[in-house]
Each structure stands twice: as structure tokens, then as C-alpha cells.
Amino acid sequence: MRRKFEELCDPIWKKCLRIVSSVLKEAEVKNADIDEVILVGGSTQIPILRAMISEAFDGKELCMSVNADEVIAE
Fold first, then answer.
1. Domain residue spans of the chain
2. Which SUPFAM superfamilies does the record cross-reference, listed alphabetically (predicted)?
């Protein structure tokens, strides 16, 4: 079931990564300049998305010390 979900959502994951890349490029910031990556919202519970984002930042460990569902409300 998870495999099918990941296959169906693959275009969404790739779009997410393109957006991240575009934002960094527009801000003239390199992946290596980022100290910490914090994901927020329900999609942070999706292992493949977490892995893809970590990989996009050269394998950097994602910050998981915040409540991803509540942090955006603060």
C-alpha cells in the first residue's frame, strides 16, 4: 500500500524538491549554507519525503525536535 502511495505521489515529491531548489537559487543560498532543516505540517510524517529532502541537503539530518503540526501556529 505504501509503495503505491509513494508511486502516485512521486510527481508531488519532485515538485516539492523543485520548489526548494528554486527558492534557494533565487535567494542565492547554497545547500551547504543551510545549518538546519525543519519540516512542518502533516507531510513530515511521510518517510520518503523526509528522505528526499534530507538527500537534497546533502544527507543533512532533519530537525525533528519540534511538533511539526503545531509549530506553524506559534
1. 2-73
2. Actin-like ATPase domain
The three three-digit cell numbers of residue 59, written as one number? 544527507
Q: Which residue has the cell 523526509?
A: 50
Q: Is the pLDDT of residue 51 over 60?
A: yes
CB-neighbour burial class of residue 15 (10 A; exposed 0-12, middle 13-18, buried 19+): exposed
> Nine-digit cell at 70?
503545531
Rg (Cα) of the chain, in Å, rounded? 13
Rounded to the nearest 5 degrees, what angle is found at the Cα of 70, between the Cα atoms of 49 and 5? 25
pLDDT of residue 73: 60
pTM over 0.90: no
Tens digit of pLDDT for each residue in 13-41? 999 999 999 999 999 999 889 999 988 87
